[in-house]
Amino acid sequence: MNAAQAIIDFAAREHALPQSVQDDALRLLGDTLAGGAAGAQSAEAAKVLVSISHANGAHCRLLSGGTASKGDAAFFNGFAVHCLEWDAVHEGAVVHALSVVTAALLAQSDAKGGSDPEAFLTALAVGVDIASGLGIAATGPMRFFRPATAGIIGAALASARLAGLPRDRFADVMGLAYSFASGTMQAHVEASIALPLQIANAARAAVMAVDLAEAGMDGPHDVLDGPFGYGALIEPLDMARYTHDLGKVWRISEVAIKPFPSGRASHGALGALAQLYGEGLRLKDVAKVELFAPPLIERLVGRPYRADMTAAYARLCLPVLAPLMLRDGVIDPALFDGDALHSPGLKQLAVNVSVTLDGNPDGNAMAPQRLAVTTHKGDVIERIINANLGSTQNPMSAGQAQAKYDLCRRLAGKAAAQQIFDNPLSYAVDPA
Q1: Distances in whole angstroms, Cα of residue 224 to Cα of each of 209, 233, 310
Q2: Which of 83, 180, 214, 278 has its C-alpha lying 20 to 30 A from 158's C-alpha?
Q3: What averages of pLDDT result for each successive group of 10 residues across the chain (432 residues)?
């Protein structure tokens, strides 16, 4: 059996999730919906909302409130979940697997009038597993935007499962999803808002793949190992890294929650700086911040401060994020659309924040890192970062998790369904 067939079998067969995996799926669903509800009220999401069809009969819910067609709901909700860079991530895979999968499943569930809660959580766990698995199997650094290219395949197969498609249609769903796969790292290099648009596009294309397969359309089947398959064109894969434990290890239980609305590569430094802030260190005390880190960190958040930067750029810019943390003790997305990022105190330190390669040869590694903070008095404070805050190795405290939830609720405002925060599973499965 080749890897594609093994993944299809996994996606289609019956599963009884262990209680701990169900708990993780529910916890991550709540985190994803909360971040999405906050993102849905952003200035960037408002621009996307203009393009959404609200035609009569469209009944799939938007995280901003209101409804849209199935595809448009998947698109908007996928954008909303990722646009603040607050969505959960499988660090080993470097995949925001919850984002595409959740957006697609919400639309799929709404389109069929709702879902059984256990079936929804199982489909979520299956989709996240597959999307994460493709990232785990990758043998090199990203060239395409992996959360979209891997995410669409996991989301499409999860949606096919929730829709009740027969197993013999899953290969076509996977093939159509691969045919629709897109998303370039150039958007990350330029810190473009196209990043969450790529997540949005993957979510919409995932549900479209299911609809087309259900209507009888076929797709290519040798989509991982074929001469023009994923492994040949998107990135090289060693699928044994994933399939060896397929169905034995649930990858959703490995997913990290992001405490801060910024690129995950910034979280090692931000977590350490938050701790120093709690110990009394303030922006006015600091002359220089140096981070010695693997190449992925430098590549993703080592970009310099710019006077003309957008909110999307700032979320991926450690020289802006580090002074913000030292000034406020929190990263508040509400500050990213105004002049608050350009205050003299922030700018003064921003030009003295650096990310330096530490010689780590692993193009996908996020740790270890070393943070060195030099004060105006000449003291140097160092911290070794072995795991990002919010990871399974360094989980958030109950207070930290509640602080994120409270901030998401405040940003979401009254337009969002409060059920998102009070009972996320009920919101996901019951559109009434």
Answers
A1: 17, 10, 37
A2: 83
A3: 94 97 98 98 95 77 94 97 97 95 98 97 98 96 95 98 98 98 95 97 98 98 97 97 96 97 96 97 97 94 93 95 96 85 90 95 91 98 96 94 95 89 97 88
Q: What residue ranges in 264-365 does DSSP mark as E strands?
A: 286-293, 353-357
In this predicted structure, what is the pLDDT of residue 154? 98
Contact 327, 391 (CB under 8 A): no
Q: What's residue 52's pLDDT?
A: 85
- pLDDT for position 57: 66
Amino acid residing at 178: Y
171 in Cβ contact with 4 (< 8 Å): yes
Residue 113 region, left (φ>0) first, then alpha (ψ -120 to 50), else beta? left
What amino acid is encoded at 159 in this protein? S
Helix/strand/coil percent split, the chain, to 5: 55, 10, 35
Beta-carbon contacts of 173 under 8 Å, excluding residues fewer than 6 positions away, are 156, 157, 159, 160, 165, 209, 210, 213, 219
| Cα 239 to Cα 249: distance, rounded to the nearest angstrom | 15
The residues pairing with 381 across neighbouring beta strands, listed in sequence order, are 373
Q: Taking Cα atoms as reference points, which of 126, 123, 165, 155 lies closest to residue 429? A: 123
In this structure, the strands spanning 380-385 and 353-357 are: unpaired
Residue whose structure tokens are 């796969």: 181
Contacts of 75 (CB under 8 A, 6+ apart): 48, 52, 103, 200, 201, 203, 204
Return the pLDDT at 337: 74
Single-letter code of the amino acid located at 98: L
Helix 146-163 to helix 3-12 angle (10° resolution) is: 50
